[in-house]
Amino acid sequence: MSDAPIGIFDSGFGGLTVARAVLDQLPGEPILYLGDSARQPYGPRPIAEVREYALEMLDQLVREGVKMLVIACNSASSAMLRDARERYAGIPVVEVIFPAARRAVAATRNGKVGLIATHATVTSRAYDDAFEIAPHIELTSVACPRFVEFVERGVTMSPELLDVARAYLAPIIEAGCDTLILGCTHYPLLTGVISYVVGDGVTLVSSADETAKDVYRLLHDRGMARAEAAAPPVHRFRATGDPDVFSAIGRRFLGPVIGYVESPSDTSVFRLTP
Amino acid sequence: MSDAPIGIFDSGFGGLTVARAVLDQLPGEPILYLGDSARQPYGPRPIAEVREYALEMLDQLVREGVKMLVIACNSASSAMLRDARERYAGIPVVEVIFPAARRAVAATRNGKVGLIATHATVTSRAYDDAFEIAPHIELTSVACPRFVEFVERGVTMSPELLDVARAYLAPIIEAGCDTLILGCTHYPLLTGVISYVVGDGVTLVSSADETAKDVYRLLHDRGMARAEAAAPPVHRFRATGDPDVFSAIGRRFLGPVIGYVESPSDTSVFRLTP
C-alpha cells in the first residue's frame, strides 16, 4: 500500500479527461496532475523535442514521489514510452495508446477500426504499430486538428462544428468502421457530436476510460492502492503556463461541482408531501 | 432554440452520472436536477408507488419550465415511461433503458449480453422487453444490490468489494457474455472493478453515456439547443431529502473541481526553463 500520489502528465488540458476517469474509478487515490501548458501543444513539435519536454515533466513528477506515472497524452506516449520505462525503472508507467488499441481489437465485429487523433499522433503511426500483430484489423486514421479548439471553447453543437465533424468523419463512415478510437484525450468531450455523425451503431473507444482501467488493474495487482480508511485524498494540479488559464479551461474538463443544493422548502412552487 | 433547462430526475444520486454525461456533451445547456432522496431507493417499492412518486417529481420539473425530461433512473423508467409521454405531450422524454439496449445490440459479437442492475430493474424485465424484437440476443441478468452502497461510500477496490463483484459477475462470465450493460446509473463509477473482474475483452455499456447521446440527438434534431453565444448556464440541484447529505454524496458523482492551480514558481523544487 502507498499513500503517494498517482502522477498524471499531459502537454496541457486533454489529460484531464484521463485524470477524471482515474478519480472516478479510484476516488481514494490522490493525484498530482502536471500540464505543460506553457509549451503546448506538443503535436506540431519534432519527436525529439516532445521526448525532451516530456521526460523533463516526468522527472518532476518522480521527484515529487509519485507511485505511478500516467502519460495522458497521445503525442508524448508515441514519442517516449520506452525511454520512460527505462528511465524510471521501478515506477510503473501507463500510457494511452495500447489500452485503447486493445479495446478496439476486442470490440470490432468487422475488423474495420477508425482512429481520430491529432496530426502528430496520426503521422507517428503509433496506433498502426499497436495493431501490427493483428493483421485482420483494417485501420482508417484521420487527423482532426480543429476538434481541440471546439472542446476548449466549450462548443459542442454549432453548425460549424457539425460541418467540420462531418468532413473529418466521412472517411471513417465510408470505410465502414464499426469501432472508432478517440485517440486524443480531448475527444471524449465530443462524444455527443461524434456519435451523432457516425451513428450509434459505431462503438466509441475512449482512451481516457481505457487508460483508467489499466491504472486500476496495475494498482490492484501490485498492491499499491492507498488504504481504504485513509483520510480523503488531496489532489494537486500544476501547470507550467498561466494558472488562471489552466483553471478556466480545466473546469470544462472536470465539470462543475455541486454547490448549493435546494430543498423543497426553498420555494412555494415546490410543495412536496413525501 | 430555447434557454429553458433540461430536467433530469432520479430517485436519488445515481442520475448524477447521467447529469454529468449531459454536462460533458452539452456544456452550454442549463440543467435542473431533481433527486427524490427523501424517498429513495425506489427499487424495493411496488411499481404503482414508483409511478406515483416519479410522476409527482416530473410534474415539478414541468412546472419549472424544463424543455426536456430525462428519467435518469432505471426503476422509474420501467415503471412510467409511457405514462410520462402521454402526460407531458409536447415535452420530449428520454429514459435510460432503450439507449443502453440499442447500444448493446450494436456492440455484441456473439449475441450474449449481460445486464447488471438493481433487483427492481431485473424483476421488471424491462430490458428483456427491450430485446424482444432481437431474438438472437441471449440476455443474462444479475441483480447486484450491494454495488450502490460501495459507490456511495466511495469504495472501489476493497477485498470485500472484489469478493462481492466476483460473486455477482460469475454468471455473466459463465454465460460468455461479450457485452455488459451497466443497468443502474450508479455503476459507471465501478467500471474499474467490473472491467477488472470480467476482463477487458467485455464491452461495457454505460446507460449514462448512451442516454446523454440521445439527449444530444433529440436537442439537435428538434432545434431546441441554447444559443451558442449565451451566458454560461446556471445548473440547479434539488433534493427532497437532506441537502447536505445530497451535496456530500453528490460530490462523489460529479467529482472534484479544480481549485488552486500551482505554477512552477510555487516551489524551488520545480525549476522550469520553458
Query: Count of DSSP E strands of chain A?
Result: 10
CATH fold title of the largest domain in chain A: Rossmann fold
Q: Which structural class should the secondary elements of chain A be placed in?
A: alpha/beta
What is the highest CATH level, the class of the largest domain in chain A?
A: Alpha Beta
Distance between the termini of chain A: 45 Å
Q: Give the averaged pLDDT of chain A, no decimals.
A: 90
Tell me about the largest β-sheet of chain A.
5 strands, parallel
Major β-sheet strand ordering of chain A: 4-3-1-2-9
Radius of gyration of chain A: 20 Å
**Roughly what fraction of the amino acids of chain A lie in strands?**
15-25%
List the domain count of chain A as a whole number.
2
Order of helices and strands of chain A: EHEHEHEHEHHEHHEHEHEHE
- Helix content estimate of chain A: 40-55%
Low-confidence stretches of chain A: 267-274
Count of separate DSSP helical elements of chain A: 11
Largest interface: A-B, 75 and 77 residues
Binding site for substrate (chains A, B): 10-11, 42-43, 74-75, 185-186
Enzyme class (chains A, B): isomerase
Protein name (chains A, B): Glutamate racemase
Pfam families (chains A, B): Asp_Glu_race
